[in-house]
Every structure is written in structure tokens, then in C-alpha cells.
Amino acid sequence: MSTVSTPATTRQYALPDWSALDTVWRRSLPFPLWKVGEQSLLYHWLDDAVDKGVERVVLYVADRPAEVRLAMESATLWPLAWEVRPVADPAGVEVDDTIDRLPGTPATPPPEAGWGLIHHWQMIEHTWLARFAEEVAEYPIDLGVGRGCQIHPSARLQPPYWIGDHVSIGPRCLIGPNAVVGEGALVGEGARIERAHLGDGTYLGPETDLIDSVLEGATLLNLKHRARIDRLEEFVAGQANGPTRPPQASPGERWLAFRLWWQWRKAATGKQVACDTFTGVDGNQWTLPKGLLPAHRRPLLKAVWQGRLPLFGPLPRPPVALQGLPEDWATLILAATPGALSYADVMGASPGTFEEALHTVYMLTDRSGRTNELCLSWARNLLRRHPLKSGFIELGGTHG
Fold this sequence. Notes:
The chain has about 400 residues and is α/β, with parallel strands linked by helices. It has 3 domains: about 10-135, no CATH class; about 150-240, UDP N-Acetylglucosamine Acyltransferase, domain 1, CATH 2.160.10; about 250-395, no CATH class. It is built from 9 helices and 25 strands. Strand 22 and strand 23 form a beta hairpin. The radius of gyration is 26 Å and the shape is globular.
């Protein structure tokens, strides 16, 4: 890789294509997006660029440039202009540096495939931990612990370490040295984490040692013995929230779903019902609706009154429907349990559109319960005003 001198306000970086080296972990992200401590390796380079007064960065990417572009679109904390340029091989591009290590550390040859890549990543993280511990040593508060953490007083923390937001650590645990505990992780009583990385949202069982290893969900990478285990026992490790039961519809919602399903039982196709209005729980007038709801939703309504599905949630969709959406939107929608009806229906958004995804994300992030109440009010008025004798009913609209 050759380097080039660029104006002080611009930096050009190459992102190596190490996808062929990732034969053990087989991650869905290119190496520069792997987390190192509290953020991705790429973001550490953005920190360095801002510290040096850089105003614009250009990234030459051969491995999954779409993922890199999504990461840059989410990088709103850095006051930088940026450009992602897909290339066949970044080795042939003149750049200022390569994002394959931490800023300020010497360049090294590419690691060996497989476990060599995992060890290279671990070395980068341990280097960052040591650097971080030195930088924050003079502060009176513990900057290595994120927000909203619950750490038992008997737990011991040995620097260097990093503990993400909303982590729970039980009694008699030992964290560190060289330990990273990802956001939302849960560490059981008497567990030990040393020279190891516990992934976001991962549960580590009580009286369990995680040493020279990486644990994400139920997948363990043991770096010392170079062994991968994909399905650990649930009492040892897994997702911190466990295999949760899908949200259940209330008795009233189940009855409402049954009534809708029953009136739909002999639905014909090819017709539609006139638009109408109703007063929502917020006191506003809402329009019954512009989009068409086909009768194939009927099996979903049956699943609701049978107690297997919530009445309201993201509409079921194929994975291709998530392409082009912001990464955090797609993650929210994928993690949510689908419903028979959606807030997007109330708003008249056609399934599969960007507008429908926007309303779905709003519903999933609404903690006030307002969207669910509005959906209930809308569905009751829908049932009362339309006998559902046709194969399609008109849904959604905007409040006026």
C-alpha cells in the first residue's frame, strides 16, 4: 500500500479487504467495523482525524462498501465530511493510511487467515484498553463504566477494562485485566472475565471463567486452544434477554382480532370500501384509509386470537424489504415480533415502502403507548364502520 500526502483538512484511508481471512468468526461486517472497546475500529480513526483538525475523509473500500457507508451515515458525532469510494483493490490506491490497526501504532503485515485474524483483533483491543486506562487514570470517576450499569459492590474491576452501557454484573465477579463487557451484557455471580471480550447483549452464567476468549450469544471462540463452540448450554451462556416469548395480545385485542377474522371468513377479492373518518384517542380526526389491506392478513388475525401473535407490530416482510433502510431501522424491525396490523396501516403507508418503515420504527420506539392506543381506537372504528364483506378494506391516512 502506497501513501500520499494530502491537504491537512483531508485524509484518504484504505479499508483492507480481509474477508478471505475471516474463516473462523465469519462475521457479517468487514474488519474495520469490528468493535474495539466501545466502538468500531473505523470510529477510532475518525476520532484521530478530528483531533488532527481533519475536515474531510475519503474511504477506499473493497469489502462490503454498503456496510461502511451505513456506518458513516450513523457517524453523526464526528464533524466530518466523508466519501466512500468502492474499489476492486485498495492496495492499488494512494492513501494516507490503512485502517487495519489503531491510529498511532506501527503498520504490520496482514495477519494469517483464521485464528491469526482473531488474535490480531484481540491485540488491537488490548492496545486500546491500555491506552484508554492511561488516559483516564487521572480522573476521579470511573470512565471505564458506561451508563445505567448495575455492578454489585462485591464485584472487583481490575484495569484495564471497558464496560458498556446498561451492563449488569453480579456478586463476586472479577472483571479484568484486559476485559471488554459489551452493552447490555449480563454477568452472573462469581464469573470471571480476563483477557476476553463479552459481546453486546450476551449472558455469562454464574461461576464461569471467560479467559482468552470471545463470547457472543452462545458462540464461544477460545483463542488459547483455537476452538470454536457454536451452541453452549443455556446455563453457561446465551443472549442476555434469553429466548423471550413473543408479546401477547390482551384479551380485548384477541376478541377484536377474532371479530375481524370472523367477518373476513367469506371475503371476496377485488373490491374495496369507501374511505371514512374517526376520532382517535388523541382527539384528532383520522382518515380511514388510503392503502388496501388484502385478505391474506386473515391468518395473522387468527394467530392473534389464538394467542400466538400480538395484534399490532411490524408487518411481516421478506429480508429484501429491509435493503436500503438505515442499519438501526433494519435492526429494530428484525428484532421485533410481527403483528397482524401496524401503525403504518393507520397512517396509510403501503407495505414495503420507506414511509411504512418510518412509521414502523416510530411505533417500535414509542414508549408512551400512544401508538398502540391509537391503533386500537382505529381498529375498533374500522370494525364498527365496515362490515368487511369485501376482500379489501381501506386503511390508514393522515390526521387533519
